[in-house]
Amino acid sequence: MKAHRRNKLFAIIGGLALLSAAVGLILYALSSNINHFYPPTEVSQGKAPLNKTIRVGGLVAYNSVKRAADGLDVEFTVTDNQNSLRVQYHGILPDLFKEGQGVIAEGQLVSKTEFVASKVLAKHDEKYMPPEVEQSLEKYGHPGKSKSSEY
Amino acid sequence: MANAWRWFHQLGSPKYLFQKTGQWLPWIWGATLILLAVGLYYSLWASPIEVRQGQGHTVRIMYVHVPAAALSMIAYIAMAIAATVGLVWKMKMAFAAVRSIAPVGAAMTFLALFTGSVWGKPTWGTWWEWDARMTSELLLLFLYLGYIALHASFSDRSKADKAGAILAIVGVINIPIIYLSVKWWNTLHQGYSVTEEGALDPAFQTPLFLMLGAMYLLFAALVIMRLRAEIILRNQKARWVTEWATGQSTERGDA
After folding, report:
1. A103 lies in a domain?
2. CB-based contacts of B63, cutoff 8 Å, min separation 6
3. What pLDDT is stored for residue A143 in this prediction?
4. d(CA B30, nearest CA chain A) in Å
5. What pLDDT does B19 receive?
6. Domain ranges in chain B?
7. Residue A52 contacts by C-beta under 8 Å, 6 or more apart in sequence?
């Protein structure tokens, strides 16, 4: 490779390296703002602000969903299998909402364990399962149930 | 190595590149159509529904969404590589390739965003969320559109090529951010299904991999067609182009 071409290539690569370092530092500084939601553990550690609109995310705990006898009020526990958070919500839940499934709730923290949601989104995890597999899993036990708490 | 260099230099010749791509194109289109037909059959009929997703059939959106999203990133990497080759070796055909890839890449990005949105509404309960994956993918769309606009804003082609190439190279930083966003931050978008072992049931893998192959080939075919048009556009005054064009027209006149 001729010298001037090599210099040009190095200039491009060097420029890119500098630029990615700069972008990396910016992203690192902003990382808490980029996170779409707080898991319950971070909430209990006090990383999430109170009385400010934020999102929390985790799994809906088994046997925790309580619907009001009349109206759309619903209450459930969001957990990451270490800590949990009680969520109150008034509204229609998405199709995917189910105990054991991931959710993201937008709203405000009342305390470190209580959250009032204004919007509830279902989170799809990376697992895709056809009906037959689901049926056989229900029959022979769910190996993924304890593991499905990666977020 | 010497052979590779010779091939590299030959590709820099507009006439050689035009002839070679003309030979490849029918084969690529043929393979594209076959794979697309088989892939669509598997995606739309011969694959199961997903247990949790709304009406079940929304999972089929994945067979377009994942290839489009993958291509939107790969196309940009290809653009940045071609732009580097163009700047370093002053190869005009590399700049022509950058310009040919941009609109196809933009279309793939739009397709990924659009299909993601249509899937997100029933599954997540929202059309759009400003999470890291979606925002960075939207930025990618703007980078493609920015390149196209920047290139169009110069009346001098070689200036347009150089300015566009720099934008293409700078923008490549966004690619690892898109790819790793689901790992680095808590996003609404799910993590890796394809590379994560056991995440994607084999029943979904067949249609997905077929559609990945089909869409990659479709992308290649579209880019090569644009590249050939770009070569003709850039070499209007060359004799071989005139000969090719008039030869074509007399043949048509005869028929």
Report:
1. yes
2. B39, B43, B207, B208, B211
3. 52
4. 32
5. 93
6. 20-239
7. A108, A109
Q: For residue A45, what is the domain's CATH number?
A: 2.40.50.140
Is residue A54 one of the residues assigned to a domain? Answer: yes
Q: How many C-beta atoms lie closer than 10 Å to residue A101's C-beta?
A: 16
ipTM value, please give it. 0.74
Say whether both A9 and A68 belong to one domain. no
Two tokens, residue B223: 């880019």
Predicted local confidence at residue B254, as pLDDT: 45
Same-domain check for residues A83 and A113:
yes
Query: Can you tell me the distance from the alpha carbon of B64 to that of B50, in angstroms, rounded to the nearest whole number?
Result: 16
Of the segments A30-34, A91-95, B181-185, B207-211, which one has the largest average pLDDT value?
B207-211
Characterize the bridge pairing of strands A114-123 and A84-90.
parallel
Q: Has residue A23 got a pLDDT over 70?
A: yes
Q: Which of B156, B117, B152 is nearest to B133 (CA)?
A: B117
Same-domain check for residues A11 and A57: no
Nearest CB to A123: which of B51, B84, B188? B188
Binary contact (B51, A39; C-beta < 8 A): no
Please tell me if residue B118 touches chain A, with a CB cutoff of 8 Å: no
Q: What stretches in chain B show pLDDT beneath 50?
A: 251-255
pTM, entire model: 0.86
Residue with tokens 């709203």: A107
pLDDT, position A129: 79
Closest to B223 (Cα-Cα) out of B81, B119, B84, B71: B71
Q: What pLDDT was estimated at residue A151?
A: 39
Q: Which domain holds residue A15?
A: 1-34
CA A45 – CA A22 distance, rounded (Å): 30
